[in-house]
Write a structure and sequence with these properties.
With about 160 residues, this protein is mostly helical. The chain has 5 helices and no strands.
Length: about 160
């Protein structure tokens, strides 16, 4: 049975968010650096350096993983998945928060072997919690994402 086709069918789910992810690094790095500085008792310069390294690492790994998921979704289903909505973005932030925390904790532990592991885990967790709270606020206050899927409405209009 024929189904509705959209012009963006070849664009991956994560690729749509790529510019926002890259732009989110600008406030995340200094924000997380301030948390690292306070909890780990570091100089601002060292905290910024560690935050930059950890955030670049987690973003790069996340982008590679996101592109791989996009390719698998499109190869297996012919679609990049459901339309991104505020609810879907909120649900995705939870595993991404845990993944980011894990990657950034490991990155900082490798670079700062002089710091206690438990304190680094606490600092990276608090820093990521603050960053992800800011991302959640952005998701719910921006007009970038719709609150509900518009696909069914589009399909009904197209059928008419």
């Amino acid at each position: 049975m024929p189904t509705l086709a959209f012009a963006n069918a070849g664009i991956g789910y994560f690729m749509i968010a790529l510019p926002i992810v890259v732009l989110a690094l600008i406030p995340a790095i200094p924000l997380e650096a301030l948390v690292l500085q306070a909890i780990l008792r570091l100089s601002l310069q060292r905290a910024l350096s560690l935050s930059l390294w950890a955030n670049l690492r987690s973003t790069l790994i996340g982008l590679v993983l996101g592109i791989a998921i996009d390719v698998l979704l499109m190869a297996g289903t012919g679609s990049a998945g459901p339309e991104p909505t505020k609810g879907a973005a909120t649900a995705m932030l939870v595993p991404l928060f845990l993944f980011s925390w894990w990657i950034e904790h490991r990155a900082i532990r490798r670079r700062a072997t002089d710091l206690p592991g438990r304190r680094v885990a606490l600092a990276t967790g608090a820093a990521n919690l603050l960053s992800y709270a800011a991302m959640l606020a952005f998701v719910w206050t921006t007009a970038f994402l719709p609150e509900r899927s518009t696909m069914s409405t589009r399909a009904q209009v197209s059928e008419a």
